[in-house]
Specification:
It is a single chain. This protein is α/β, with parallel strands linked by helices and 453 residues long. It folds into 3 domains: 115 residues, no CATH class; 166 residues, Rossmann fold (3-Layer(aba) Sandwich), CATH 3.40.50; 117 residues, no CATH class. Strands 3-10-9-8-11-12 form a 6-stranded mixed beta sheet, sandwiched between helices. Helix 6 links the parallel strand 9 and strand 10. Helix 5 runs parallel beside helix 10 and helix 13 packs across helix 15. It is globular.
């Protein structure tokens, strides 16, 4: 059964009168009126002198916000109920545009989430008629020559450092969620970059998160009832980067992610579909760039690290510019905010730890030392993550390019976005070599697992 989510705040009374079913949806979204159950502080998007957003740019932000909040509000089921059926209704200002790109947009969300999203667009009431609304703004920074997305993780930090070391003037854009640990990592990395490159870097962010503190707030799922995967968060980054670039007349938007996660290959068959992240998959970026072109914007999002491993990013880009302590101030964990330090058992933690050691950095402390004593965690998701990661590395090293394409046919999807399959496989082989060398050198207990795979 489909879950229906409606952005009721922006719908005109005439639309609600003609479609009374919209007022009784499973969940209603509002981030402007006194009944708001979320916050979207767009004013934080500008750290420089603000200028008005166009109606279409404001629509992009609203559509991304509604989709992100919907993604959180609809938890996945188990087994055959894993793939979600979601109907989303959004109020927009440029109705003709959104109706013309509706299929493209739904395809983008399907690529990101693996779910069946059906999105309907309705005309928005005038913002002047909406209580609590404020004029939307965007940065106007004539010194900036590109936009770079900064999440607080290692890879996005490498993207910013790459540009700053090259003498570029990036406008660094962040999404602030309600997660204090992520916000702290973003603040620390922002301060770090601003201190080291004070005349080159400038920052802005937008705060989008559920917020039901108001006594008049519409209902919204409690934190323990929300979907934790956050597959749509990358859409927020894509939109914020494009809106910032389009408003400033810039063409380049950089979204850094290592080539292993970018390729989006499932570590095992059981991790197919939405169990494997596709947040920076070239098809996703290509689809989004198509929407930007339809909007008449010249900006294009690009990932400069499609053919690099995390270890290579740390070794070749971050180590020459930052101290090991500074690099390790970033945060990569999927469990961030739900524990007092990085968990050590999720896939991002494992990739981070292996990448750090492969680049010659000291080891970090984690909630669990999975790699040193894996059998102590047998039967847990963390142990499964490690076995799957080791098995994937062994598979990549043991098979030819042709055999890997046969085993992972999704590699061929990369060609649709102009990405070289042979170069991606070469990147996966270098990553697998990093995994093998780090495990056999530092973690004999995990190495014994590697021997039997």
């Amino acid at each position: 059964m489909a879950v229906t989510v409606v952005q009721t705040e922006g719908l005109s009374p005439s639309v609600l009168a003609r479609h009374p079913e919209l007022a009784v949806a499973d969940w209603q979204l509002d981030w402007r009126s006194p009944r708001r159950n979320a916050v979207c502080t767009l004013a934080d998007l500008c750290s420089q002198q603000p200028g008005p957003l166009t109606d279409l740019a404001q629509d992009f932000v609203d559509v991304a916000t509604a989709t992100y909040l919907t993604d959180i509000s609809v938890p996945r089921g188990r087994n055959e109920q894993w793939v979600r059926e979601v109907e989303l209704v959004v109020a927009v200002r440029e109705l003709d545009f959104w109706e013309s790109v509706a299929d493209q947009f739904m395809r983008l969300i399907q690529l990101l989430t693996g779910d069946n999203f059906r999105v309907a667009f309705y005309p928005r009431a005038n913002d002047s008629d909406t209580a609590g609304s404020a004029p939307a703004t965007a940065p106007t920074d004539p010194a900036a020559d590109c936009v770079c997305l900064l999440s607080g993780g290692v890879d996005s930090l490498a993207g910013a450092v790459m540009l700053l070391r090259a003498g570029r003037q990036p406008h660094l854009v962040m999404h602030y969620s309600g997660n204090p640990t992520v916000r702290s990592a973003q603040d620390v990395t922002s301060k770090l970059l601003d201190t080291q490159w004070p005349d080159q870097s400038r920052f802005s962010g937008i705060h989008i998160a559920p917020d039901t503190r108001s006594p008049d707030a519409l209902p919204y799922p409690e934190p323990d009832m929300r979907e934790p995967s956050r597959r749509v968060r990358s859409l927020l980054y894509l939109v914020l980067g494009a809106v910032t670039a389009a408003s400033a007349g810039l063409e380049e938007v950089y979204m850094g992610e290592n080539g292993v996660l970018t390729a989006g290959l499932p570590l095992t068959i059981a991790r197919s579909g939405s169990l494997s992240t596709r947040s920076t998959h070239p098809q996703v970026i290509n689809q989004f760039n198509g929407l930007c072109g339809q909007a008449g914007w010249n900006c294009r999002v690009q990932n400069p690290f499609v053919y690099q491993t995390k270890g290579e990013l740390i070794r070749d880009i971050l180590r020459p510019a930052l101290s090991p302590l500074d690099i390790q101030k970033s945060v990569s964990c999927w469990m961030t905010g739900r524990a007092n330090r990085q968990c050590g058992g999720c896939i991002p933690c494992l990739l981070r730890r292996i990448g750090m050691l492969a680049a010659g950095l000291p080891d970090e402390a984690y909630m669990m030392d999975l790699l040193s004593n894996p059998l102590a965690h047998a039967g847990t998701d963390a142990f499964t993550n490690l076995v799957d990661l080791l098995n994937h590395a062994a598979t990549v090293l043991a098979h030819s390019d042709e055999e890997l394409i046969h085993q992972f046919p999704r590699l061929l999807d990369l060609t649709r976005a102009g990405v070289s399959v042979s170069e991606v496989i070469a990147t996966l082989r270098r990553h697998a070599t990093e995994v093998h060398q780090v495990i056999t050198t530092h973690f004999p207990a995990s190495a014994r697992l590697l021997e039997v795979l």
